[in-house]
Design goal:
The protein has 185 residues and is an alpha+beta fold. It is built from four helices and eleven strands; from the N terminus they run αααβββββββββββα. It starts with a helix and ends with a helix. Bound molecules: fe (ii) ion. Fe (ii) ion (FE2) binds next to loops.
């Protein structure tokens, strides 16, 4: 059974393990193996957005909902991450740095119950390929909101400082679409 406080405690305990990310991957994989329990504990997401479940200098846990067909431009995290999907799917497009730009080097679709680790240097863009919300637990090995990091213009692939407000606008646009879809139905 998924319990928010216990999940946080387990993740905090994993920070003492020699392979912290591997231990967190196990915890997240176990949690998303039973999506219904997460929905019961955290509530069903109705809109796209980011809910901070836990934030400390050494650990951030987010409950994330991607809007239908939502696209998030390439960005890095500069800390390890573990992503677990408990509803829907997300496509990850991976990039590596090349001179002043980025080169795409692979994609991976994650479906409900999938959990993957992402290394500190990973650069990725995320797309929700579905016409409904995709919901995920994200765990990061640091303070996700305090770390200065980069994003890349989706068209020119030019690097620039990560812009939280821009990301929030992408979520808000997704929600405007969701509201429009509800009005039409
Ligand atoms: Fe990311």
């Amino acid at each position: 059974m998924f319990q928010k406080e216990r999940f946080i405690e387990e993740c905090r305990a994993a920070l003492k393990e020699s392979d912290t990310q591997g231990a967190i991957l196990e915890i997240v994989a176990r949690a998303v193996a039973d999506p219904q329990q997460i929905i019961l504990a955290l509530g069903e997401q109705k809109l796209a957005g980011v809910e901070t479940i836990y934030r400390a200098d050494d650990l951030t846990i987010l409950n994330l909902a991607w809007g239908p067909q939502m696209k998030l431009h390439p960005h890095d995290h500069r800390m390890w991450a573990v992503i677990g999907i408990y509803g829907g799917s997300e496509d990850n497009i991976f990039y590596s740095r090349s001179r002043d730009s980025l080169t795409q080097h692979g994609t991976r679709r994650l479906n409900t119950k999938d959990a993957i680790p992402l290394g500190e240097t990973v650069i990725h863009a995320v797309v929700n390929p579905l016409d409904r919300l995709t919901v995920a637990i994200h765990v990061y090995g640091g303070d996700f909101f305090a770390m200065p990091r980069s994003e890349w213009d989706p068209k020119t692939l030019e690097e620039r400082p990560y812009d939280v407000e821009h990301t929030m606008r992408v979520f808000e646009e997704a929600n405007e679409q969701l509201r429009a879809m509800k009005t039409l139905s």
